[in-house]
Amino acid sequence: MSDIFREVEEDLRRERYEALWDTYGAYVIGSAVALIVAVGAVSWWNASTKTAAEDAARAFVAADQLAEEGNTEEAAAAFATLAEEGNGGYEAVAGIRAAGLMAEAGDVDGAVARLDAIAAGGGDDTLRSLAALRAAMLLADTASIDDLNIRLAPLAEEGEPFRFSALELLGFAALKAGDEDAAANNFQMLADAAGAPPLMRERARDMLRGLQVDGPVARQLPATPAGEANEAGEADDTGAAEAPGTEENASGGEAQ
Question: For a Cys-Cys bond, which of 83, 136, 139, 204 suits 143, CB 3.0-4.6 Å?
Fold first, then answer.
């Protein structure tokens, strides 16, 4: 009889995890898009001021326009070409944009492979971290908790540009895997982080309140300072306000 009660309890807990993910998961995964656009805009501005990069700047804007018009395949191809042949610092940004469009078209494996290559390559450290975060976001619903931990743990370290998005995604990953202690620990670190975007901290608090149904969180939840901006205008992104010129800074993003 005790086995039946245990199974019922596990089913109810799983349903609660899924409900929490359905409520907040979109904020995490969706944050990458605005972040990438923001990074692309900054790169475009910097590169377009240099004569040698003017062609790449125009090609990037043209590819972005194709994406805006819904020509996903053409845009992905244009970004991929720019990633392979571009100059002026556009290679990584274009590659990340191409991967996003590939995923949108259903080629998640190809998108992750492209992002992993960018993350493992040379170039700007922030863009490499962004590529690694985006790959983890694409795998959030399918990868094992161990794989996600391997991908996200380095991004969640102090000083990393997308630390807050990585912590949030680690929390959701642990929650989906049924590890309440790990989930609470990640959400608590996020809730305690004074530098995290306000909406991201508030989501972490909401998650901690939900987890407290089964047990109290050891530390006191910090109050949100009055007058803090929200996460979208807060840093102006769909994800987080972490690194200058990145989505998390303008966003929301670890994203996401």
Answer: 139
DSSP-assigned states of every residue in 43-94:
HHHHHHTSGGGHHHHHHHHHHHHHHHTT-HHHHHHHHHHHHHH--TTHHHHH
Cβ(233)–Cβ(198) below 8 Å? no
Phi/psi region, residue 158 (left: phi>0; alpha: psi -120 to 50; beta: rest), is beta
CB-CB neighbours of 147 under 10 Å: 13
d(CA 99, CA 33): 11
**8 A C-beta contact, residue 116 and residue 95:** no
CB-CB neighbours of 46 under 10 Å: 14
Terminal-to-terminal C-alpha distance of the chain: 44
Angle (nearest 5°) at CA 238 between 164 and 117? 70
Rounded to two decimals, what is the model's pTM?
A: 0.67
Asked if 32 and 239 count as a contact pair (C-beta separation under 8 A), the reply is yes
Query: How is residue 116 written in tokens?
Result: 């992993």
CA distance 252 to 245: 13
Instruction: Output the six-digit token pair for 113.
Output: 């492979």
Element (H, E) at 20: helix 2-48
